[in-house]
Amino acid sequence: MARTIQEIVTSMGTLPAGITETPNGEMSIWRDMAARAIQLFEYVLDLFRIEIDTKLDTKQYGTIQWYIEKSYEYQHGYDLAVSNDGVIGYTVEDSEAKIVTRSAVFSQDNFVYMKVAKTENDTLAPLTGAELTGFMQYINALKPAGIKLGVISEFADKLTLSADIYIRPLFTSASVSTAISQALLTFRNQFEFNGIVNISDIYNVLDDLSGAEAAILTKLSWRESYQTQPPIPIERQKLVSGYFIYESINIRIRNTEGQLLTTLTEL
């Protein structure tokens, strides 16, 4: 870790006998300039060390980052081969066949679990049955022996959202409706895979809208993709699939007096 300027100056030691140093003297200036140059070099070393550590974490066999990296390297429809030096991999690299675009790995009860998804028409989607089978065969061939591994690839979790947005007088309901759609879609698209949905995050998206005087989030509910029972009200929820869609929205746009101007029901 880079040292402070004072630590570096102190490490330079005392001046030789016969040479005096004053706070603003020439020798003090030279020592300060040298210390700043040394500190800058140490900052560069710190950045280099972080980069190397990150690469080592990715390459180190059997780590979480290693599993994630390997999931992105999966090529659907290709067979693994063993090279002359015993390394398992593909003989040909085909970027079009690398279907996994999102991956998360965690351990629980002596199991390693992987959540993966692909991108279709600019939205996340689960792997098909054939793709999931191929991926599991691939990762089982690469993983360390004896590791119990599970792979999850499901349809999106579903959110139901209801809110009242009060808009400023100089803004139209149409412009605010567009801003709401863009903001909610951006939040969904940039959501961290396998992250946690917080009601406060949704509120902040709505409250920070250009033209919004105030936002009242009246309902936020969740359910897994396969569930048929009504959604469950939530304040904080870990996503089962790792990502989500808006199953239903009902956003009422009102003026500052509370009069209903329009209702947004789809993005």
Give the biggest beta sheet.
5 strands, mixed
Terminal residue distance:
48 Å
- Give me the Rg, rounded: 28 Å
SS class:
alpha+beta
Count of β-strands: 13
| Count of helical regions | 6
Low-confidence stretches: none
Summed over residues and divided by their number, the pLDDT gives a mean of: 88
Count of discrete domains = 3
How would you portray this structure in words?
With 267 residues, the protein is an alpha+beta fold. The protein folds into 3 domains: 5-59; 74-152, no CATH class; 157-264, no CATH class. Helix content is 34%, strand content 29%. It has helices at 5-11, 26-59, 64-73, 129-142, 173-189, 199-207; strands at 81-82, 88-89, 100-108, 111-120, 123-125, 148-152, 157-167, 196-198, 212-223, 232-233, 236-238, 244-254, 260-264. A 5-stranded mixed sheet has the order 10-9-7-12-13, with helices on one face. β3 and β4 form a beta hairpin. It is flat, with a radius of gyration of 28 Å. The protein starts with a helix and ends with a strand. 16% of the residues are buried.
